[in-house]
Amino acid sequence: MAEEKRFAVLIDIENIAPKYIELIMNEASNYGNITIKRAYGDWTRQSSSTWRGKLLDYSIIPMQQFNNTFGKNSSDSALIIDAMNILYRSNVDGFILVSSDSDFTRLAATLKEEGKVVVGMGESKTPVALRNACDYFKVLDLLYKDLDKTQSGKKGQKKKQSAKPKQKKGHDDDISEIQEEANASTDLDTIERAIISIIDRNGDEDNGMYIGTLGNSLIRRYPDFDTRNYGASKLSKFLEQFDSLQLTKDGDSTYVKVL
After folding, report:
1. What pLDDT was estimated at residue 131?
2. What is the pLDDT of residues 218-230, one digit of tens each?
3. Which residues face 41 on adjacent strands?
4. pLDDT by residue (tens digit) across 74-85?
5. How far apart are CA 235 and CA 191, in angstroms?
6. Domain-located, residue 156
7. How many CA atoms lie within 13 A of 118 on its CB side?
8. Quick count: other Cβ atoms within 10 Å of Cβ 42?
9. Within this chain, do residues 139 and 12 fall inside the same structural domain, yes or no?
């Protein structure tokens, strides 16, 4: 059995809302064992109070950094210095950088150059440069919205069963809804062109391409790609929206080909 990868989670609290903490830690656990958990900010400020209550719940170590100069964020520098110290002094396989701040772009790129897996987490406002500097990037506000919608859906399931059935939507309506959900993520037309290009280049003429391989290729091109950003629970559901693609089953495996 392969040894579980070890990750450090470094959170910029001055750039991320505390409501995302459960989502952050749940997503982080998907990548491996979280051995280092630190949150950076000026904990003496009133604005940090909502974060303080979250630290004990998730055993996160607060890293105090005073903002000695007006308009300057010292926490960014502290996080970057700590990340480099962890890189060379600790046995970790990757870093999870939680911030929407483009100042961490160079840090993410450097950690990747050193052979570490870099997972970024931030809001839709996160610049493309930081997203693409990571191996994976999770858009927290979109995932939070999807999670909230799922939970609300479960609560209202009984009401929906007794409600009047809705008129069936056409393909164009589905695409419009999904595009609306995508918000600041890569647009659907770009994703569709990329899928077709990947399958044409790497797929089999008869069966097309294994869906898992396609998903990995998409993430390498667009680190912020996550089907949940588009309102789909998994890749197969997401691909069903495109008239240009066809999904087929072969035992337990699913393949996708270009029509």
Report:
1. 95
2. 999 999 999 998 8
3. 64
4. 668 889 999 999
5. 12
6. no
7. 27
8. 17
9. yes
Mention every residue, 6+ apart, whose C-beta is less than 8 A from residue 164: none
Beta strand 94-98 pairing with 6-12: parallel
Amino acid occupying residue 81: I
Q: Does 172 lie in the same domain as 139?
A: no
Encode pLDDT of 144-184 as tens digits.
987 766 556 555 554 444 444 444 445 444 444 444 444 45
Q: In terms of domains, do 194 and 108 share one?
A: no
Residues 124 and 217 in one domain: no
Amino acid at 147: L
Give me the half-sphere count of Cα atoms (radius 13 Å) on the Cβ side of residue 54. Answer: 21
Give residue 234's domain range: 168-258
Query: What single string gives the DSSP state of each residue in 186-251?
Result: PPHHHHHHHHHHHHHHHSBTTTBEEHHHHHHHHHHH-TT--GGGGT-SSHHHHHTT-TTEEEEEET
Q: What is the pLDDT at residue 254?
A: 93
| Residue 238, pLDDT above cutoff 90 | yes
Domain count, the chain: 2
For residue 203, which phi and psi values (nearest 5 degrees)?
A: -85, 165
Q: Are residues 37 and 139 in the same domain?
A: yes
Q: What is the CATH number of the domain that holds 65?
A: 3.40.50.1010
Q: Is residue 253 part of a domain?
A: yes
pLDDT of residue 175: 44
The token duo for 106 is: 């160079």
Structure tokens at 117: 């897996």
Q: Are 130 and 64 members of one domain?
A: yes
pLDDT digits (tens, 9 = 90+) for 70-126: 444 566 888 999 999 999 998 899 999 999 999 999 999 999 999 999 999 999 999
Mean pLDDT score of the chain: 84
Which residues make beta-bridge pairs with 10?
Answer: 38, 97
